[in-house]
Amino acid sequence: MNSFKKIGIVFGLLAVLVSCQDKSKPNYQYMPNMYEPVGYETYSEVGILPDAQEAMVPPANTIPRGWMPYGYENTPEGKELARVQLSPLDSLQRDANLVKGAELYDIYCAICHGPKGKGQGTLVKREKILGVPSYDDAARNITVGTSFHTIQYGLNSMGSYASQMNTEEMWQVSEYVMQLKQDLTK
User: Fold this and answer.
1) pTM over 0.90
2) Rounded Cα–Cα distance for residues 116 and 110 (Å)
3) Nearest residue to 112 via CA among 104, 122, 102
4) pLDDT tens-digit series, residues 94-137
5) Which CATH class for the 76-185 domain?
6) Domain chopping of the chain, boundaries
7) Closest CA to 141 of 111, 113, 178
């Protein structure tokens, strides 16, 4: 078959396809699944995953990746048990942890507790909230463990910050709070 016949056949097929085309709807779809979506019922047996495994509850005793459970309960007794806990962060990177803790403290804590930890933040000065303690208050006896416990669960009118910071960031802020307490007692 010579090349002119091949070209003629190709043009002939194209002419047939073009002449039969309906302007309101394409008559030929190269990849139909690109044009027409396939819907799946969320909890149906027929879907991408077998046995309706879509959007199910995770298995028991599993934790999300990157999150570590906190071993103390949200009770006064749990806070007292947390009092003796030390920071698990690397002590060789203490300066880097304090720098990061200072950044996070300025974002989340300084608005109420003040930049120096005296309990005189902007909201306290404007009398929007009352009763924010200074870190050097001897009656509070703040430790790095109780500071973390308070950030994790909240205390009194202070809510939990566990949804805003990960575990490492909460420990960094706790270490920075202890640094502020040390600076206030000098």
Assistant:
1) no
2) 8
3) 122
4) 889 899 999 999 999 999 898 998 888 888 888 888 888 888 88
5) mainly alpha
6) 76-185
7) 178
